[in-house]
Task: inverse folding
């Protein structure tokens, strides 16, 4: 499997097929038992733990099905966490976090704790947290799976807009065929094998530009 720069690709498969495992491998959260994973033509799994942590913090944004927000912290503090982990000051991290909350339409909810937000708002906070570090790649694991249809479309359209505005390379696991059809490519995962199910013209040209191509290979 290869992801070209600027693509938005959907993975569609039933529960238990391995979508989450694949995303975890590409995010360097797990280590493959066979095959190889490359980013910018460099093997990921040969890096030491510190380098892998830096890769996860700077190169990849991960969006979970369940928002995984810390309940005792405000929306702004949750979004700021990845920046604090890389050593930025609290004031700088919170300022950046608030700017990202504005991008997802939640500037007026910055001081609210997770439990005071609706499900759709919680997932928008999670999107801001995934992108606050300026990653090149967004990996989203069923990002609309816990939402009703109206909120699911609103969250997907937000992801789609941010993907374009920030020139991301995005891989989205979903059960929703209607949402998947909005992506540049749809890939099925069947018995551990990835198969292209449909394709459309990519929203951006990429893949051969100098400076490297985000890519993943798995077997």
Result:
């Amino acid at each position: 499997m290869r992801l070209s720069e600027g693509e938005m690709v959907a993975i569609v498969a039933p529960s238990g097929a391995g979508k989450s495992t694949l995303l975890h491998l590409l995010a360097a959260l797990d280590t493959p038992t066979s095959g190889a994973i490359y980013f910018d033509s460099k093997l990921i799994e040969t890096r030491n733990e510190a380098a892998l942590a830096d890769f996860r913090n700077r190169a990849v944004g991960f969006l979970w099905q369940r928002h995984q927000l810390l309940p005792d912290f405000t929306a702004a503090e949750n979004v700021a966490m990845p920046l604090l982990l890389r050593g930025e000051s609290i004031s700088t991290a919170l300022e950046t976090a608030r700017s990202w909350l504005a991008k997802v339409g939640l500037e007026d909810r910055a001081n609210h704790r997770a439990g005071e937000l609706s499900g759709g708002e919680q997932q928008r906070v999670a999107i801001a947290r995934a992108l606050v570090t300026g990653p090149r790649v967004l990996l989203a694991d069923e990002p609309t799976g816990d939402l009703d249809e109206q909120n699911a479309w609103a969250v997907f359209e937000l992801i789609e807009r941010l993907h374009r505005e920030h020139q991301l390379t995005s891989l989205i696991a979903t059960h929703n065929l209607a949402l998947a059809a909005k992506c540049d490519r749809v890939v099925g995962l069947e018995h551990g094998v990835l198969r292209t199910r449909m394709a459309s013209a990519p929203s951006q040209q990429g893949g051969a530009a100098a400076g490297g191509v985000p890519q993943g290979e798995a077997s």
Q: What stands out?
A: Residues 99 and 197 are 38 Å apart (CA to CA). The helical segments are 19-26, 49-58, 75-85, 90-103, 119-131, 149-165, 177-180. Strands lie at 8-12, 38-39, 42-43, 60-63, 137-141, 169-174, 185-190, 193-199.
